[in-house]
Amino acid sequence: MEILIPALLTIITAATPLLFAALGELVTEKSGVLNLGIEGMMVMGAIIGFVTVHVTGSATLAILASLVAGALMASIFAVLVLKFHASQVPTGLALTIFGIGLSALIGQSMIGIAYDGLPVISIPLLSSIPVLGELLFKHDILVFLSIVMVFVVTWFLYRSRAGLILRAVGDSHDAAHAMGYSVIKIRFLAILFGGAMAGVGGAYLSLAYSPLWVEQMTAGRGWIALALVVFATWRPGRVLLGAYLFGGITILQLHAQALGIGIPSQVMSMLPYLATIVVLVIISSDQSKIKLNSPASLGKAFHPSR
Amino acid sequence: MLPSMIKRQTPSKVMVYLSPVLALVLTLIAGILLFLIMGVSPTAALHAFFIEPVSSFYGVTELGVKATPLILIGVALSLGFKAGVWNIGAEGQLIIGGMCGGAVALFFYEKTGFYIIPLILAAGILGGMLWATIVAFLRTQFNANEILTSLMLSYVAGLFLNLMVHGPLKDPEGYNFPESRLFSESALLPTLFEGTRLHIGFLIALVVVAVGWVLISKTLLGYQIKVMGDAPAAGEHAGFSRSKIIWITLVLSGGVAGLAGVIEVSGPIGQLLPTISPGYGFTAIIVAYVGRLHPIGVLFAAILLALTYLGGEEAQISLNLPVAVTGVFQGLLLFFLLASDVLIHYRIEFKKSLNNQQVVKS
Question: What's A172's domain CATH number?
Fold first, then answer.
């Protein structure tokens, strides 16, 4: 138990940023847009969140600022893709390159500064349950929020009218357009949501996971989040499962080292990336599953001609 | 009087070439604003970025050194991008190529022979090809998205190199520093001019430009690549094999990226280090786009982006600006290019009446 509980807790913290980013991207992709810029939006969320908490001392403001930063980054993507008809793949890549550069520029004076981390919220009564209380009811606000967002996104996509319209836009933008829905507006909002979620996911890294600023501290998590959406075959519940699975793999390396297993640290660090590949291969090899669940218009440009 | 975008009947040829120029101008304007925000004199900063690095002969040769990997990878990636094959992991193929070539160089430590350099280069190419083979295999056999697999493999490649220079390839007399020995003279690429670092790798890059140009515009394979990118359904109907194109473009770009890597380690670097590239593999994506996915265009684009690397270093030394400015510039350039490209297919009109059915509000 002395080893198990901290291990499980670290899985949760490793999974949370992935969960935010992947849920956001899921909604964006459900609207038919593939944004490869998650890494860039996350890293901007990380630095803006960190700068804000350093300047104002308020974690709430920091989270809000990272949310706005992610959404602003996403809006660049949205304008280019939706208004300027830019191709989605290179635009997303540009967003990542830009975000990594800009965050490093902003974060220059932030290197070497530490932060206490987000305050832990204990839910009264429930958190005093032995073992379970500590695992489930004693976390920072973002861990709780990430779980809540799974339910919110599920409800939104499958139980709300707006979600139905969003999915329609993602499956057939021409049909949705013909029915009078504004494809551009709906996609714009979906992209902004994706950006905001990625921003918060990034903020979790710099405010809670390892509360300091390091250049490129997202270390490919934006890309792993992208793979998680495929892994989940575009279903929010499975994103949760996937994020925790990956959190487990990420954390394996730390604890394997602590236990003194003689595997070089570099090999352990490769695990999340290799696991992403393996998972992607397993899911992708069953094309019928992918076809059934992926938004039919994903990645296709929309040119309203009538 | 709202500006509106009207779809052109045919794409504008002029804008294809004008768009990168427009993008560059916009990037410079954005750069000036950025420097003003940072409290740096824009004239001093732009001078440091774009004039100072190339104001001496040595500076110009350094531009060639930095442009070499970008030219190589840019040309190779253009082929894939044209076919709709997204190899985003050239950085990883570069690293593995550099590592394999470097291992051969270390194997021939303190030996001489005309065959050593060709062997090193061959090892680099093979290494890069092998790394890209994984991507091609997973894509064609299991339909695994090549963007994600190639990118994940880049992270793996970086860690792999790190492991090697901490272990088997570490300098035995290096006081445990994670670096290899310095390569022997016989394993270093000859330089073109005395006292500079410009090496024959630059000439190899020019040859690759020429080969790339012939391949894309004069061969059946080049035609197939273009058709598969523009109209995959038509390509398949014509009997072109999708997986063949995926294999060829990936393995080819992997090999060339590997070549770029080995040219780096046995050229300007001269040993294996934990990091052998400042992100050339990613910057080459921008190079490919700015160069219009055309080998000759890539040559010019690579020189432009090489200048941003040199400029970043110069600005760091003379103005104490962070190197990260380079990344911001590169990202902005690609943004503005993608935005300017709208003018290839659309023209802007200022009209009062918007009853034309093809009008897209902007």
Answer: 1.10.3470
**CB < 8 Å from B in window 47-106 of A:** 76, 80, 83-87, 89-91, 93-95, 97-102, 104-105
Q: Report chain A's mean pLDDT, rounded to a whole number.
A: 88
Sort out which chain A residues have CB atoms less than 8 A from B311's CB and list them: none
Establish if B148 touches chain A: CB-CB under 8 angstroms.
Answer: yes
How many domains does one find in chain B? 1
Question: Residues A138-170: pLDDT tens digits?
Answer: 788 899 999 999 999 999 999 999 999 999 998
Sequence-ordered list of residues with C-beta below 8 angstroms from that of B216, at least 6 positions apart, any chain: B78, B79, B82, B222, B225, B226, B294, B295
Q: Per the structure, how many domains does chain A have?
A: 1
Alpha carbon separation from B226 to A33, A89, B10, B17 (Å, rounded): 25, 18, 18, 19
Question: What single-letter amino acid sits at A269?
Answer: S
What amino acid occupies position A54? H
What is the least distance, in Å, from the CA of B288 to any CA of chain A?
Answer: 11
Residue A257: per-residue pLDDT = 66
CA distance A143 to A69: 20
Domain that holds residue A16: 4-293
Q: Quote the pTM value.
A: 0.90
Residues 139-198 of A with CB under 8 A from B: none
Q: Is A172 within a domain?
A: yes
Asked whether residue A34 is domain-assigned, the answer is: yes
CB nearest to B159's CB, from A36, A94, A270? A270
Q: What is the CATH number of the domain that holds B205?
A: 1.10.3470
Q: pLDDT digits over A115-146, tens only? A: 888 888 877 777 777 777 777 777 888 999 99
Give the domain extent around B279.
41-320
The reply to whether B331 falls in a domain is: no
